[in-house]
Design goal:
It contains 12 helices and 20 strands. By secondary structure, it is an alpha/beta fold. The chain has 3 domains: 112 residues, 3-Layer(aba) Sandwich (Rossmann fold); 236 residues, pyruvate-formate lyase- activating enzyme (Alpha-Beta Horseshoe); 60 residues, Nucleic acid-binding proteins (OB fold (Dihydrolipoamide Acetyltransferase, E2P), Beta Barrel). The strands form 6 sheets. It has a 5-stranded parallel β-sheet with strand order 2-1-3-4-5, sandwiched between helices. Strands 16-17-18-20-19 form a 5-stranded mixed barrel. Strand 1, helix 1 and strand 2 form a beta-alpha-beta unit. The radius of gyration is 23 Å and the shape is globular.
Length: 442
Amino acid sequence: MSNLSPTIGFVSLGCPKNLVDSERILTELRTQGYQVVPSYDNADLVIVNTCGFIDSAVQESLEAIGEALNENGKVIVTGCLGAKEDQIRTVHPKVLEISGPHSYESVLNHVNKYVPKPEFNPYTSLIPQQGVKLTPKHYAYLKISEGCNHRCTFCIIPSLRGDMVSRNIGNVLDEAKRLADSGVRELLVIAQDTSAYGVDTKNRLGFWNGMPVKTDIQHLCEQLAKLGIWVRLHYVYPYPSVDNLIPLMAEGKILPYLDVPLQHASPTVLKSMKRPGTIEKTLERIHKWREICPDITLRSTFIVGYPGETDHDFQLLLDFLSAAQLDRVGCFTYSPIDGAMANQLPDQISEDIKQERYHQFMQLQQTISTTKLANKIGKIMPVIIDEVDDEGAIGRTMADAPEIDGVVYLNDEQSVKVGDIVNVKIEHSDEYDLWGTFVPNN
């Protein structure tokens, strides 16, 4: 390999927010002239961007570091688990350098230290304007803030990533426009708490294209809507201010989709979790949202088996699920996280009970999801195409986020291309997915 092109192996683990960090590091590496390679053995150095949120993610990260050390030997670690340097050093003392999440400058300095950047950069003219992306060309994540101001007892994100820091709204909109101009058809807006965007800046007035824009989620969405692409919101706490977003969905300006991580429905458990809001108000808000925008899709995640969760608490959760009729739901059994306050709570739940409640929860939601998807049979819906192969095409409706929700199968359909947004007549459904036929425009 030429000395003009030092090579860096890269491993990216964890959530979409971590993926965005990886994209930024990769863009900076390419800007400096490094070549990123998909294997360890030919690399001059390996970077592992870790996740440290739950025990299984920590284990996966430690295994990835070990594999990189075994295959290559020269390894730099960054990301959430990097905030726990002692834990990494205990298992892998031969790691060269360790930095925490969103430590872009430190990562580049470490790379420069062990693999000096080339004097001549043959890649500068090859770096796309939108930077290096790890998602397919037709969709991208847009991270609008770092960190979190909440102190949920089951979570350690604030200790890993700090308090919330909102990005400059002009910079966010600049990035969104670059992505749209590059061919991105769907933006997935992410943060630890998307709806709190701008709170740390007291929603100060920013500027974009010479026009004043208030730093909050509503005004951000109003500007994103002008790009003419799908805009999907994730990790939205159900603050009253979220009500202002629903008319934008009803008017077709942003996707009628809200990812609201509610976590539970029992007041006792929510209080123990230090979660905001009450379930009664949440139900009222959901009903109001559906009145304003009947097509809205609501996704949420819940935790069962949280310390102290009684049979009554769990029944309240099931009752809420029946009343709310959420479209997409994820469920996790409570898992102790090193450093989380919930580890010290009394009345820890046995694994058997956790699993029993998980299956009961998912069985109920599966019934709800099956009914909701069956109601879509016969409808013609816009679908964004994610894959096309010899067997046909696979896409998603407005109700489906990539990799976490369902898909639409278009069997034997080869006339569409990845990134197309086409009309599809829905003909069949099951618990989570749809099947349909492409409807050409007349």
